[in-house]
Design a protein that fits this description.
Number of domains: 1
Family: Belongs to the QWRF family.
Helix content: over 70%
Number of strands: 0
Shape: rod-shaped
Structural class: mainly alpha
Order of helices and strands: HH
Pfam family, one: QWRF
Strand content: under 5%
Largest sheet: none
GO molecular function, one term: microtubule binding
GO biological process, one term: spindle assembly
Number of helices: 2
Length: 125
């Protein structure tokens, strides 16, 4: 589950970047239509439509950000949990390595003791 979520991250990031890019372009288009030269007259309906369009874009952007925030919080929690599991796994692997080394050492000791026992049994009395 965690790996699947991490694999989805690039697609979410691309979607987010595309949304921000479109929002930026829409805002630029809305503001560039506003007359800003001296003596210019403003059509109140056009101005209202441009501002409404900008507000709609910002509201959509706000919804997108809220949606992404929820997903990011979920991913952050999963990544945090994955980090804890990875740290525990590392500790266990280190412990396993130590136990394997100890087992090999004990095997050598056992072999040595068996050999010594065989030699002691073969000694004349």
């Amino acid at each position: 589950v965690q790996i699947a979520c991490l694999e989805q991250w690039p697609a979410l990031e691309d979607e987010n970047n595309l949304s921000f890019s479109r929002a930026t372009e829409a805002l630029k288009a809305s503001t560039l239509r506003l007359p800003v030269t001296s003596g210019a007259r403003v059509d109140a309906v056009s101005l209202k439509n441009a501002v409404s369009s900008a507000v709609d874009v910002m509201q959509g952007l706000g919804s997108s950000v809220c949606s992404m925030l929820s997903k990011v919080e979920d991913r952050t929690y999963l990544i945090s949990e994955l980090s804890v599991v990875a740290a525990q796994e590392k500790v266990m692997l280190d412990e396993c390595r130590e136990l394997l080394a100890m087992a090999a050492e004990l095997e050598v000791q056992e072999s040595s003791l068996r050999t010594h026992l065989m030699q002691v049994k073969d000694l004349p009395r």
